[in-house]
Amino acid sequence: MSDEPGLTHLDARGEARMVGVGHKPPILRRAVAEGIVRMAPATARAMSDGELPKGDAAAVARVTGIMAAKRTSELIALCHPLPIDRAGVEVEIDAGAGEVRIRAEVETTARTGVEMEALTAVSVAALNVYDLVKGIDTAVVIDGIRLLEKTKGPAPA
After folding, report:
1. What's this model's pTM, rounded to 2 decimal places?
2. Is residue 103 assigned to a domain?
3. pLDDT tens, the chain, 157 aa long
4. Is 142 domain-assigned?
5. Which three-class secondary structure state does DSSP give residue 122?
6. Going by C-beta distance under 8 Å and a sequence separation of 6 or more, which residues neighbour residue 153?
7. 145: Cβ–Cβ under 8 A, 6 or more apart, which residues?
8. Is 131 a catalytic residue?
9. Can you give the C-alpha Rg of the chain in angstroms?
10. How many domains does the chain have?
């Protein structure tokens, strides 16, 4: 089955396939995603104060998120491997609310977008926070992972 403008991940028999994007021009693409890790305020305070037994969860989550963005095609079926031009992960702790907000921004110049890379960065960073706080808080919840923004710009000169 040929790749038509109405891209689909199913072939003529209804079987999964990787969409062909070779006909599309490489352009600047950017995506921003976020998620929240909810925990007891005391746990968030320990994280904020650097008092977790397993170390600096915010720093580890930032690096883990970037690593995850770069490996998305290995984790998500049918996802194209992309050259990541830039990936950043921010971790904001609100101890009073017991919330850790994780935000990822990913850019590439490619034939397809980086939404999955941004969402994967947030998801894996949140899992890392969970792992580092679970020893002192068994009621941690990962919540609200979503795409905030997706943009594409002109073809490179």
Report:
1. 0.88
2. yes
3. 344 455 566 667 776 666 666 677 889 999 999 999 999 999 999 999 999 999 899 999 999 999 999 999 999 988 889 999 999 999 999 999 999 999 999 999 998 889 999 999 999 999 999 999 999 999 999 999 999 999 998 756 6
4. yes
5. helix
6. 27, 28, 29, 30
7. 33, 34, 35, 119, 122, 123, 126
8. yes
9. 18
10. 1
* Rounded to 5°, angle at Cα 127 from 56 and 98: 65
Among candidate residues 49, 94, 131, 137, the one labeled active-site is 131
Instruction: Please give the single-letter amino acid code of residue 112.
Output: T
Q: Which residues constitute the domain of residue 98?
A: 27-152
Residue 36 lies in a domain: yes
Token code pair at residue 34: 């976020």
pLDDT at 3: 44
Is 65 a member of any domain?
A: yes
DSSP 8-state assignment for residue 48? H
Domain holding 62: CATH number? 3.30.70.640
Dist CA 92 CA 76 (whole Å)? 26
* Angle, CA of 125, 90 and 40, to the nearest 5°: 65
Please return the burial class of 6, using the count of CB atoms within 10 Å of its CB with bins 0-12, 13-18 and 19+.
exposed
End-to-end CA distance of the chain: 32
